[in-house]
Amino acid sequence: MLLSLRIENFALIDDLELHLGRGLNILTGETGTGKSIILEAIDVVLGGKVTLQNLRSGSDRAVVAALFSPSDRLWSWLQQQNIKPAEGGSLLCSRELTNTASGFRSRCRLNGTVVSRQQLELLRGRLVMITAQGQALQLAQPDFQREGLDEFGGAPLLQARQQVRVAYSAYQQTQQLLTQQAKSAEQQRQEQQLWEFQIQELQAASLGDPEELERLEAERQRLGHRAQLEEQSYRVYQLLYENDHDQPAAADLLGKAERILTEMAVYDQQIQPLVSLVGEALAQIQEVSRQVYSYREQIEADPTSLQQIEERVLRLKQICRKYGPTLADALERQAYLQTQLAELNSQESAHLELATVIKQQHQELTQACTHLTALRTQAARDLEAQLVEELKPLAMGKVQFKVEITPTAIGMYGADQIDFLLSFNPGEPLGPLRDLASGGEMSRFLLAFNACFPAAEGPETLVFDEIDTGVSGRVSQAIALKMQSLSQNHQILCVTHQPITAAMADHHFQVHKQTLHQRTVVRITQLNEQQRRQELAQLAAGSQEEAAIAFASSLLDQAQQWRRPPA
């Protein structure tokens, strides 16, 4: 609900503060006194278009501030937008217009926090619905028409729409994941051929031991000097054990020395340890000789070809140059490539699984949309019938109304485009509401539209500008009654020139001009009972003569009877 409106240096208004109440708030006054400026200020503070002409002449700064008491539903939405409540749980919307050397600017705030016009426009439809002469605002917008139809459909329809929203969100998330996977897989597929070639090359090299190259190079060194090693090992064997030449071998000499020492030990036992030492030396010489002989035999019997080893060493060095620098690095590269290919295969499998999931999700989403469309179709037929009945007493009994539901791309609100089609004159084709309705017709249509579901959770404050202009007394009375009924569940702010409408007011304000310091200013006064009679007399007869006052009193009495609930 709109609690108050403060306007500074806006158009003809220098400084004005308006406090509104629940129910029906009526603004009256002579034509041109500034009533529409007040409504325009409400439009501006909620993100409406502004120009330099909105600044009061001679001022370079204007401020419009509106204080609201939000509903619980609205607070839930505000919390999602990270907007915190002001003191007392209120919501303060303000807009500052400035004209400086750098140009004309406007700045919007919610509870003191700067926000964009786009954020305000999102909030606007949740706070106020404005219908003014010559304007086709929210009701003409497709999103609002869809929202209105869904609200009219009630809890089952809103629940079905929520199911669509949940299904669509899940479908979108899976689709995004699928797209990311496909993009990643495509990038890796471009490298897959190179990876597969490298793995084939590494696997063909039969890598296993990271020390193989060092071992083979040592073996190549040994085999490369095989003849020399054979010759030298044989020479060592001869020197140690069995000499083919005339010179005795080391084993022969030690054997001879052992025999002599043994003979000496017969006469002197101190020699015995020396006998043992020489015996041990002889045994070691014999063991070394045996191993040297065996070593020589192995060299002669080794089947490994030096050429094969050299070819293997060359192959491994090529691998190291390409994937190394070491054989261990090449082995690590091979393992990495195998892992990458395995992951790519796994991703392809996951991609197929996601494709299956998204197919199922799309089926579920389509089914949810089909169910939502069916509920909307039924709600549309009910709204058509009820709205036509609500329009009849408002001098719009010949109106044809149709809710057109056409298929569209699936989104979070389903797969339906909602359009309100009307024909205000018999024989004329139906057309979009935004193209056909004048300001007065739009206002009355909106009045009837809201009357169809007074308990709906739409904007709490409805603003009408001269909704009853150009209608007869009977129609004016019907409009007044409809508005008074609607004000039981909404706050209504209405500009009117009709005394019968003004008489229904819960809060009656008079807008007038006055000259202050040789400047025209707009002032607003909340009227008491006596002042209301005078104002109604002025509206009805253009004077405040006794007869006009009596007529005004009768209107107030009659309005009191209309507002009184039935016994």
Characteristic key phrases:
about 575 residues, alpha/beta, 6-stranded antiparallel beta sheet, 6-stranded mixed beta sheet, rod-shaped
Task: Explain this structure.
The protein has 567 residues and is α/β, with parallel strands linked by helices. The protein has a domain at 212-325. The chain is built from 16 helices and 15 strands. The strands form three sheets. Strands 2-1-4-5-6-7 form a six-stranded antiparallel beta sheet, covered by helices on one side. Helix 7 packs antiparallel against helix 8 and helix 9 (306-323) runs parallel beside helix 10 (327-391). The radius of gyration is 50 Å and the shape is rod-shaped. It starts with a strand and ends with a helix. The model has no long low-confidence stretch (mean pLDDT 84).
Radius of gyration: 50 Å
- Largest sheet geometry: 6 strands, antiparallel
Tell me the strand percentage band: 15-25%
Helices, by number, come to 16
Calculate the mean pLDDT score and round it: 84
Could you give the order of strands across the largest sheet?
2-1-4-5-6-7
Distance between the termini: 30 Å
Total beta strand runs: 15
Helix content class: 55-70%
How does the overall form come out from the CA principal axes? rod-shaped
Structural class: alpha/beta
Low-confidence stretches: none
Task: Give a brief rundown of this model.
This protein has a domain of 114 residues. 56% of the residues lie in helices and 19% in strands. The chain has 16 helices and 15 strands.
